[in-house]
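QA checklist item 7 of 12: single-chain prediction sanity check.
[x] sequence parsed
[x] length recorded as 292
[x] structure emitted
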Amino acid sequence: MDYFTFFSLKAILHLFLLLGSLMVASAGNFYQDFDITWGDGRAKILNNGELLTLSLDKASGSGFQSRNEYLFGKIDMQLKLVPGNSAGTVTAYYLSSKGSTWDEIDFEFLGNQSGDPYILHTNVFSQGKGNREQQFYLWFDPTADFHTYSILWNPQRILFSVDGTPIREFKNSESIGVPFPKNQPMRIYSSLWNADDWATRGGLVKTDWTQAPFTASYRNFKAEACVVSNGASSCASNNSPSSTSSSAWLSQELDSTSQDRLKWVQKNYMIYNYCTDAKRFPQGFPPECRTF
């Protein structure tokens, strides 16, 4: 190997390593990665930044947001939800941009009376328009222990997953006129708040404030993502993956095993799908529903 070839290979390797380090945004210290944004002391970062808790009482809820903005990424967070009678409460964990034509990718956990299952509510907004709700029961008690809730967002699709099991896929259907979130960087947000006007049985069951304070817990945040700072992305400008393993999520899709698991969840645990709600769409379903 001549000197020029050796130098070139060394430079390419250094570039790949640099790109990989830029795209792995963070791995799990809440002091470094997030700011508590509201709640007047009801949100707390504990255990040297390894744990974050949000609390809700009759006076106020609480929330936090990421310091970084992302344009595509694989975001993991472990949550343990409000135990006991959580009726009327909502724990929201989502990505969102700003402005009147915002993009958003939602997990919302709708509390319930003791013994009844939580409802996991998902939605996708693009250019300020949502109305793409799917709801699920979970196959475990989300208040008994921590579970991992993941959002994979790349130029081709958005995948919602729970403990590595995909529960929903929203594909890029721009070819048939469906807007897809791909141009606006988003922050991670989470909040615990009172929504007893609609959250539990359409608002029939109200929050029992004798159970307050209500507390949700967070740990093990991880982001493999393109960080946007001052208008520039840490990834390549065309968002194409490099050959490093750290960028595989940029082109990730469901393999046959994951497709089978997705179908299992949707057959057994999905309780609402906007793509089958004929009363809501009497003039015809949204175009992306044709490929559902």
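[x] summary fact logged: The mean pLDDT is 88.
[ ] second reviewer sign-off
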